[in-house]
Write a structure and sequence with these properties.
By secondary structure, the protein is α+β, with helices and mostly antiparallel strands. It has helices at residues 48-65, 101-107, 136-142, 147-169, 215-218, 224-236; strands at 5-11, 15-20, 25-30, 33-36, 41-44, 72-75, 80-84, 87-88, 91-98, 114-124, 133-134, 173-184, 190-193, 201-205. Helix 1 runs parallel beside helix 6. Bound molecules: cytidine-5'-monophosphate (C5P). Residues 92, 94, 100-103, 131, 177-179, 200-202, 214 line the site of cytidine-5'-monophosphate.
């Protein structure tokens, strides 16, 4: 059955969200627009939307097979994905296996050092505040989510890490860290939402240690499109 795209609900930095002609469903359209540093840096990564849509599909399917509840329903086209409609919990949940990015900067740790067991961090999803790092107690203070929900989100996040780490390793990539978002479905169940892609993961080539993700855009490393296409090839085989 063909899903028909309805009215635009919302336009974000990397995606547009449309109504779908099925209740409790929405259509995500993946754009090529790239932003970094709380949208202070802007640009375009050609065909990024296609890569992120296809990579997300593959990873959501893998996670669903591994028992993780997700919003993913189907990929409709190169740039469109059908998902269940969820109420997003305003938290960005970051898992770190290796020191990099803001962790190295904030705590003065050495980039590339292994983190064992993996570190889970929560950031408050709030553009005007610049998505600050927050603790469990801040989450309670802000009334962002119940402690039981936070515990469940953390458990699913670690399960996702356990499933994704060997998947990337088998394809010659090191999963350094990544960001997840969760929401409540219409039954009030916690489900994994948003996307999982080179925009939201740090991936290093196992052999060369080269970045294969959005860090190439953030740090002006060049060959950005080439890196995204290589991730697509390794993840989806196309
Ligand atoms: O910048 P930082 O080191 O905190 O990022 C950790 C991980 O979370 C990286 O993989 C990054 O791509 C991802 N992230 C994201 N969206 C943000 C912030 C971080 O996808 N707003």
């Amino acid at each position: 059955m063909k899903t028909v795209k309805g009215a635009l609900i919302y336009e974000g930095k990397a995606k547009k969200l449309f109504e779908a002609d099925r209740s409790d469903h929405v259509i995500h359209y993946f754009k090529d627009d790239a932003t970094a540093f709380n949208a202070q840096k802007r640009g375009t990564i050609v065909e990024k939307g296609v890569v992120n849509n296809k990579v997300s599909e593959r990873l959501f399917r893998l996670l669903q097979e591994g028992g993780v509840p997700t919003h993913f329903v189907d990929r409709l086209s190169d740039r469109e994905m059908l998902t269940r409609r969820v109420r997003i919990i305003p938290l960005e949940v970051v898992v770190r296996n290796i020191v990099a990015g803001s962790l190295a900067k904030r705590l003065g740790l050495k980039e590339g050092d292994r983190i064992e067991p993996p570190l889970v961090e929560f950031y408050y999803k709030n553009d005007s505040l610049g998505d600050p790092l927050i603790t469990d107690e801040h989450i309670r203070l802000l009334n962002v989510a119940e402690p039981t929900v936070v515990a469940e989100v953390k458990q699913w996040t670690l399960r996702v890490n356990t499933l994704l780490t060997p998947f990337f390793r088998d394809r010659g990539m090191v999963l350094v860290d990544f960001k997840l978002e969760f929401g409540f479905d219409s039954q009030g169940k916690v489900v994994l939402a948003d996307e999982i892609s080179p925009d939201t993961c740090r991936l290093w080539d196992q052999k060369t240690g080269e970045s294969m993700d959005k860090d190439r855009f953030r740090k002006d490393l060049g060959r950005i499109e080439e890196a995204y296409q290589e991730v697509l090839k390794r993840v989806c085989g196309t």
